[in-house]
Amino acid sequence: MERADVAIIGGGLIGCATAWRLAQAGASVALFEAGELNAGASGQNAGSLHFQIERRFLEGSESLTGEAACIVALSRLAVEDWRGIEDALGVDLHVSMRGGLMVAETAGEVALLERKAAVEAQQGLSVETLDGDAARSIAPYLSPAILAANFSRDEGHSDPRILTPALAAAAQAAGATVRSRTRVERITREQGRFTLQGEGWTLAADRTLVAAGAWSAGVSALANLHMPLYPVPLMMNATARTAPIVPHLIQHVGRRLSLKQTHSGNLLIGGGWPSRLAQAPGGGFDLSRPAELLPASLAGNLRAAVDVVPRVARLDLIRSWTGVTAVSADQLPIVGEVPRMPGMWVAAGGSAFTLGLTFARLLAESMAGKVAPELAVVSPARFEHLNGFMG
Ligand SMILES: Cc1cc2nc3c(=O)[nH]c(=O)nc-3n(C[C@H](O)[C@H](O)[C@H](O)COP(=O)(O)OP(=O)(O)OC[C@H]3O[C@@H](n4cnc5c(N)ncnc54)[C@H](O)[C@@H]3O)c2cc1C
C-alpha cells in the first residue's frame, strides 16, 4: 500500500498551495483531484485580491462585522503572501497590486464606508476614506454619481488561470505526488491513521486535508463528519479587450460589484451575483452539472458596472460563466484540524483566492506543530457540536 505523511483531497488553489508548502518543508504529500486541476472555483473566479472587509459582512448584524474584523488579520498576512508569490514560484502570475476602491453612491453607503474603515483601522489595516472628487482624482473613470470611496493601496488582482497550475508544478518539483482524474471515494481511520481509497488505489496517510471547495461537506461525510459548508453558485462576465482604463480593483459597498482590467485588457465584472445550482433527483444539489446563468443576475451585474464605470457601456460583452464556491454556516472560512478527529484537517469556504496562499502557509506551519493564532477564528472547533452525535 502507498503511504504519505499527508493526503490532500482537492486540486484547487488551497490543495495545491498546501501541497507545495508541505513538500517544501520535507513532508511526503499525495494530492488527489477528482477532475482536472483548477477546474473548480479556483479557475473560475474573479481573481480579486480584496483586503477590505467584504460587503456581504456589512449587510448583517454588528456581531458579523466583528467576526469580519478578525478576517482582517488574515488579510494583512495575505498582502505579504501575495507580494512574495511571483518570486517564490518564479512565475509571472499577472499580479497587479495598484490599489482598490470600494465605492458608495448614497449617503447611507457613505456612512457604511466610514463604519467599515473604523473597524479596519482598529485591526491595523490602512484604508483611506476619500470623497467623490478625491476618488475621481485617482480613478477618473469613475461615475460622477460616486459620493465616496475607501481606498486600500494593497488591493488588486491576479490571474486565476495561472496560479493553481503554477502551485501544482511547484508542489511536484518539491516532491509531492499530484494526481488528477483520481476521486477519493472512501476514507477510514484506524488507530489514528487514515486510509483513502478510490477506483483501483489505496493510500495510507498520517493526516488528511479536505480542500474540496464546494464539495467539502460531501468529502467530510466520507469520514463521518458534518462540515457546514454549502455550495454557492455565482457568475462572472468578461468584456472585449480594450486599452488600459482601470488600473484598480473596484468594489461597491452597497451593491454586488467587482470590476478590474486584466493583463490582456478585458474588463472582468462580477461581485457575487447568483447563478442557479442543478437539482439532484430525490433532493439536494447536483454539483456534477454546471450552474445555470440567470438573466436577472446578468442584467443586474452589468447595470451596477455601468453605473460605477460608465465606459463599460461602450464595451462588448464576450463571455459570461458560472462557478460554485463554498460558504460556511457563519460565512467565515473553516480552516484547521477537526478536534474530535485528530489528523483530519479541513480548509474551505470564504474568499480563498485572496486568502488561500495564507491558509496554505499557516496550515503547513500548524501541521509542523507551530501555533498559528490567526487560524483560531476560523477553526472547525466552532462547529464541533454538530459532530457530537456522529459516533
Ligand atoms: C464566480 C466566482 C468568483 C469568485 N471570486 C473571487 C475573488 O475575486 N476573490 C476571492 O478571494 N475569491 C473568489 N472566489 C472564491 C474562490 O474562488 C474560492 O474560495 C477558491 O477558489 C476555493 O479554492 P479551493 O481550492 O478551496 O476549491 P476549488 O478550487 O473548488 O477546488 C476543489 C477541488 O476539489 C475537487 N474534489 C471534490 N471532491 C473530490 C474528491 N472526492 N476527490 C478528489 N477531489 C475532489 C474538485 O474537483 C475541485 O477541483 C470566487 C468564486 C467564484 C465561484
Automatic annotation (TrEMBL):
<dbReference type="InterPro" id="IPR036188">
    <property type="entry name" value="FAD/NAD-bd_sf"/>
</dbReference>
<dbReference type="Pfam" id="PF01266">
    <property type="entry name" value="DAO"/>
</dbReference>
<dbReference type="InterPro" id="IPR006076">
    <property type="entry name" value="FAD-dep_OxRdtase"/>
</dbReference>
<dbReference type="GO" id="GO:0005737">
    <property type="term" value="C:cytoplasm"/>
</dbReference>
<feature type="domain" description="FAD dependent oxidoreductase">
    <location>
        <begin position="5"/>
        <end position="365"/>
    </location>
</feature>
<dbReference type="GO" id="GO:0016491">
    <property type="term" value="F:oxidoreductase activity"/>
</dbReference>
<keyword id="KW-0560">Oxidoreductase</keyword>
<protein>
    <submittedName>
        <fullName>FAD-dependent oxidoreductase</fullName>
    </submittedName>
</protein>
